[in-house]
Design a protein that fits this description.
The structure is a homodimer. Chain A has helices at 9-12, 24-31, 34-46, 60-72, 91-97, 101-107; strands spanning 48-50, 76-81, 84-89. Chain A is of the alpha+beta class. Chain A has a single domain, classed as Winged helix-like DNA-binding domain superfamily/Winged helix DNA-binding domain (Arc Repressor Mutant, subunit A, Orthogonal Bundle), CATH 1.10.10. The first copy, chain A, has a 3-stranded antiparallel beta sheet, covered by helices on one side. Chain A is globular, with a radius of gyration of 16 Å. Chain A starts with 8 loop residues before the first helix and ends in a 9-residue tail after the last helix. Chain A binds a DNA duplex through helix 4.
Chain lengths: 116, 116
DNA sequence: ACGATAGTTCGAATATAGTCGAACATTGAA
DNA sequence: TTCAATGTTCGACTATATTCGAACTATCGT
């Protein structure tokens, strides 16, 4: 039988869920990891970025995992740009699906402020 | 040596973190579980409730776990009321610490709406 | 002091997540 | 077509979560 992968072009098609199919729990979970929250914050500020630009010293395989979680939660859209992958927040879509959520999360002070 | 628990009264004091010491990730994580999100929604609607009133058929030990996660994330305050424990949302405090967060989460449509 | 009720804690089993190196895939450029 | 650059996938390991029964604790009423 043919052992070669059929439709190898499918590998480069990066899948994104329709925003309607994303569950609230899923989004909250994706945002609950400090690494991923950091990525989202940076994307919110910088507009878009490659995976490696936001790795914070972590290995590629770890970052790839986190970006996948963000993608599957509908938070991030990834498009291929040459050999790199460009990521951007799905802000407008998220705003429709969960009004105010991203705004509130981005505005929040993540860590406990130092208390005397 | 004295093997008896000293200060056994401390056992009945239910501990709650200061709202300032709660991290955003922690809150998002606590809310990312459907069972806990359901509890929060019910508390938001009903004002307050005992643990067993919201168990949705789950065993006590499981619910106790979820309530502990909610407490440690600063979402819920538990006070003892006779043999029962009364829980209520720490809405005002949460609103100060993470403005708009709880409101937005409660307003959100949790599940994907049916799509034709 | 006893029993009934409501939760907590413990322990063990299972499940899910995060981490990271190594191998692989894709792209564009030389 | 070979190479360097950028991510993805795989596999293994570790860590953390969830679940639930059983034993325990606290509280109130009798």
């Amino acid at each position: 039988m043919n052992e070669r992968p059929v439709l190898s072009f499918a590998m480069r098609m990066i899948q994104h869920p329709a925003i309607e199919d994303v569950a609230l729990s899923q989004v909250l979970y994706a945002l609950s990891d400090p690494v991923r929250l950091g990525v989202v914050r940076q994307l919110a500020q910088g507009g878009e970025a490659t995976c490696s630009a936001l790795d914070a010293g972590r290995p590629k395989s770890s970052m790839s995992h986190h970006f996948r979680v963000l993608r599957e939660a509908g938070l991030v859209r990834t498009r291929t740009d040459g050999p790199a992958h460009m990521n951007e927040l799905r802000r407008d879509e998220l705003e429709r699906r969960f009004p105010g959520l991203l705004t509130v999360v981005l505005a929040a002070q993540a860590e406990a402020p130092g208390r005397t």
